[in-house]
Design goal:
About 20% of the residues lie in helices and about 40% in strands. By secondary structure, it is of the alpha/beta class. The chain has one domain (about 5-50, about 60-120): 2,3-Dihydroxybiphenyl 1,2-Dioxygenase, domain 1, CATH 3.10.180. The strands form two sheets. Strands 1-4-3-2 form a four-stranded mixed beta sheet, with helices on one face. The protein has a four-stranded mixed beta sheet with strand order 5-8-7-6, with helices on one face. α1 packs antiparallel against α2. The longest helix has 13 residues, at about 70-80.
C-alpha cells in the first residue's frame, strides 16, 4: 500500500550514515539522492530523509521495517546500537501482537521509534 514516505531529520548526511548501517541487515540500501534528499529501499525509493524545516521539536514517527528472518532483526538491533541508537526493546517475541511477531525497537538520531520485525516462526 505504501509507495514511499519521507521523514524530516536534523542532519541528512548523519541520518543517512545511520540508516546505511541499520537497514543493511534488512537488505535495504541508498537508492537515490535528489538534492539534499536521500532515499533508501530494497526496490524503489521507499524511505526518504529530508531536511527538517522547523526549528521546533520534531514529532516522533514510528517506522517498522520488514525483516526476512529473526537473525536480520537481531542484526538490525546490533547495527543500530553500534551506530548510536538508543535501544528501546531488544529483539524478542511479542505474543500480544501475534504468536510469531519477533521485533526490536530503537530510537534513531532524531528521536524516531524505528523497528525491525519478522512475522514468521
Amino acid at each position: 500500500m505504501i509507495d514511499h514516505m519521507a521523514i524530516q531529520v536534523a542532519n541528512v548526511p548523519a541520518s543517512a550514515d545511520f540508516y546505511d548501517r541499520v537497514l543493511a541487515p534488512l537488505g535495504a540500501q541508498r537508492t537515490k539522492q535528489f538534492g539534499e534528499f536521500i532515499s533508501f529501499g530494497t526496490t524503489g525509493h521507499t524511505l526518504w530523509l529530508v531536511p527538517a524545516t522547523d526549528d521546533g521539536p520534531a514529532r516522533e514517527v514510528h517506522l517498522a521495517f520488514a525483516a526476512p528472518d529473526r537473525a536480520a532483526v537481531d542484526a538490525f538491533h546490533a547495527a543500530a546500537v553500534a551506530a548510536g541508537a538508543e535501544s528501546l526493546h531488544a529483539p524478542r517475541l511479542w505474543p500480544q501482537y501475534h504468536e510469531s511477531y519477533y521485533g526490536a525497537f530503537v530510537r534513531d538520531l532524531d528521536g524516531n521509534n524505528i523497528e525491525a520485525v519478522c512475522h514468521t516462526a
